[in-house]
């Protein structure tokens, strides 16, 4: 019986050079929300018909995103590798707007915080659509799953 969802997600800690408390909180929330509800259905058929649930490890290797997909028992199924060139601007813009958002939370009025948060959401939404597009034909995901995965991809790109 198909169960197209992620039940565990891990980030390759070797990739993450540095992160502050705000980014660590974003990571925790993204993972929690992702595991609470997601749709993740690799499109490649497996000989035994396995169709979820999945464990996922995200890592960056030689400038590419690797998604290591495993069965619920941890046995490897496949690794999907995506070039990250098309994500560079989205990641850069997302980091910049997140910095502004975290500063606004500490120093700005509610109206200013809302304005920055709306801009942050817009960038996040565009990046989620790009991720869905890049995974098309490889992995079927819903919009919320794409948003949370993009957050985790950004965490992998933090440099001190």
Oligomer type: single chain
Distance between the termini: 44 Å
Helix percent reads 40-55%
Helix/strand-derived category reads alpha+beta
Total of helices: 4
Explain how this protein is built.
It contains four helices and six strands. It is α+β, with helices and mostly antiparallel strands and 160 residues long. It has a four-stranded mixed sheet with strand order 1-3-4-5, with helices on one face. The protein has a two-stranded antiparallel sheet with strand order 2-6. The radius of gyration is 16 Å and the shape is elongated. It has one domain (6-156). The N and C termini lie far apart (44 Å). 48% of the residues lie in helices and 22% in strands.
List keywords for this structure.
160 residues, 4-stranded mixed β-sheet, 6 strands
Describe the secondary-structure layout:
Blueprint: E1 6-11, H1 21-36, E2 40-42, E3 54-61, E4 64-71, E5 76-83, H2 88-107, H3 110-135, E6 139-141, H4 143-156
Parallel strand pairs: 1-3
Antiparallel strand pairs: 2-6, 3-4, 4-5
Helix pairs in contact: 1-4, 2-3, 3-4
Q: Brief overview, please?
A:
This protein is α+β, with helices and mostly antiparallel strands and 160 residues long. It is 48% helix and 22% strand.
